[in-house]
Amino acid sequence: MNTNSEQFVRQQYGNSSNLDIRIRIHEMYSTTDKDWHEWVFEQMDFAPDSRMIEFGCGSGDLWIKNAAKRMPKWNVTLTDNSAGMLAKAEQTIGNHPQFTYKLMDIQAVEYEDNTFDAAIANHMLYHVPNLDQALSELSRIVKPGGTLYASTIGLKHMNEIYEFAAEFDSSLSFTKPLNSKHFGLENGMEKLQTYFGQVELLRFESDLHITDVHHLADYMFTINSNLKETLLQKEALNSFIEFLESKKTAEGYVRISKDSGLFVCTK
Q1: 215, 27 in Cβ contact below 8 A?
Q2: Helices marked H in the chain — which ranges?
Q3: How do residues 128-160 score in pLDDT, each as one tens digit?
Q4: Which of 149, 160, 222, 247 could form a disulfide with 18 if both were Cys (CB 3.0 to 4.6 A apart)?
Q5: Which whole-number Å values give the CA distances from 243 to 69, 229, 230, 232, 236, in the listed order?
């Protein structure tokens, strides 16, 4: 599944519904008490008067979940390539003086060189058609000594759900997206080092222990809506839910591997 095509991105992120479901399952079933957005924010180092820009801001969760840590003199530009996602972020955060919302393509950033102290690109660079162009733009707009924070996933991330679908019915059209092959934990450092002098990878240690398999099925349906349609056509949806139930451990949960991390890049 090609995840850096415009068609895929429009289908997945025209609004926040798919993303909200995926975030929720991580919030509910992660094996660590630390929320992903809180962990990411703890890795970031902003001066009291920093000017930052986030690309692919989604629903604005990074800033909502860390609202108590925000400093009054921060100047934050939130951007997304989806009007629906940007509208959700503005609705969630509100009309706050330190936030500016802009519909923007990371491949063509409308700011001058050396404008920002920090740039943020969380779980979005693998969706960009021209990754080199995007990284060049990020390097261009970050000040000397400034930082890019870019999170992504690795090759092992959520592998079990694709194995489950294939085991249940090998004819199902449910293949793993190529996110990590475009920009992942395994190849991200090499790509980033072309544009930033120092790059460090920090890994987030957590898995999922899912007790309600309906939530797991809903997660899978956000990745490929045709999966649910196919199961309904085959009158196999209930059987699929029962199959997922059979994958629970003796402790009563389905274990799903997570493989996520954050690149901290200094210009």
Answers
A1: no
A2: 6-13, 17-29, 36-43, 61-64, 83-93, 131-141, 159-168, 179-182, 188-192, 213-223, 225-233, 237-246
A3: 999 999 999 999 999 999 999 999 999 999 999
A4: 222
A5: 43, 17, 16, 15, 10
